[in-house]
Amino acid sequence: MGGVGKTTIAKAIYNKIGHKFEGRSFLANIREVWEENAGQAKLQEQLLSDICKEMKTKVPSIEYGIMTLKDRLCHKKVLIILDDANTLKQLNALCGSHKWFGSGSRIVITTRDINILRGIGVNQVYEMQHMDESEAIELFSWHAFKQASPTKDFAEISINVVEYSRGLPLALEVLGSYLFDREVTEWKSVIEKLKRIPNDQVQKKLKISYDLLSDDTVKEIFLDIACFFIGMDRNDVTLILNGCGLFAGIGLSILVERCLVIVDHKNILRMHDLVRDMGREIIREKSPEELEERCRLWCHEDALHILSEQTGTKAIKGLALKLPRTNAKCFSSKAFKKMEKLRLLQLAG
Questions:
Q1: 45, exposed or middle or buried, with CB in 10 Å at 0-12, 13-18, 19+?
Q2: pTM attached to this predicted model
Q3: Distance of CA 97 to the CA centre of its chain
Q4: Residues 271, 230: contact at Cβ < 8 Å?
Q5: Is 216 a residue whose pLDDT tops 80?
Q6: What percent of the chain has pLDDT over 90?
Q7: CA-closest candidate to residue 345, choices 305, 284, 303, 313
Q8: Quick one: CA dihedral 225, 231, 233, 239, positive or negative?
Q9: Which CATH number fits domain 6-120: 3.40.50.300, 3.40.50.720, 1.20.1300.10, 3.40.50.12160?
Q10: How confident is the model at residue 270 (pLDDT cuts 50, 70, 90)?
């Protein structure tokens, strides 16, 4: 998942222990650079230049770069940070084997996909933990107040923002900077807006993990969970989604590997609140004004409006409805007539 502080910690490690090695290199934003024109060769060239401290070596192909890296670095004790890698091909081109590097070398890889770490055969995996409340308040305060704790008048409302951020450093930094030097009334307005529409910077960063899902069925599973299945048993959800033809067994495993979904010790599906909001915003932003054009309706009031007004369309794939125990509602079957793609109907109450 993005925004949890992987790159920040990698930079801290690099700066703290880099002097202990014969050579070092920090390759930033590998995912983005790799897709640039000649980006693959550029990364290999930077690695050679940083460590060997010589005139830039021209790399005409990935295979040539691999051979050169193995030849030049096999006797050097090096520290290499590979930041934001997202494919095994990238790792094979930049650090294909322990044998490429001299004794005592350390290679640190940051990624959103734990599966590629297994593929390259890393020695140890560290999964990022979210900040506890005291750490989160301090980080937020440095950005919102330029000091280690909130000012007296903002103490309570600061806790509300920190609770919303759920220990995600990116959200704490972005929201703290945005709220800096604003009035309490503006803070309250921002908090109310966040309940419906996520912050744009946080949304974009988190959405990268969704965009990197190459399988459309996995994306569908993610959106279904974000809207309807948080708090449900994994086995039950698997049966439901398999009934929709979504191959949930492998799909859920991929989402867990990408840290987009969490399965707790009781086999219950969980999701970070901001990741959930990111998924729901993907749906909302495709049709901000017209409820009937959204593919999923997770809000009871929205579903109730669509059914009451009989304005459902073929865009709707799922909806959730909480039926009151008193003042029962009656809906005509005509309300569902145009929902040709409806596959999930969640009823509670």
A1: middle
A2: 0.72
A3: 28
A4: yes
A5: yes
A6: 62
A7: 303
A8: negative
A9: 3.40.50.300
A10: very high
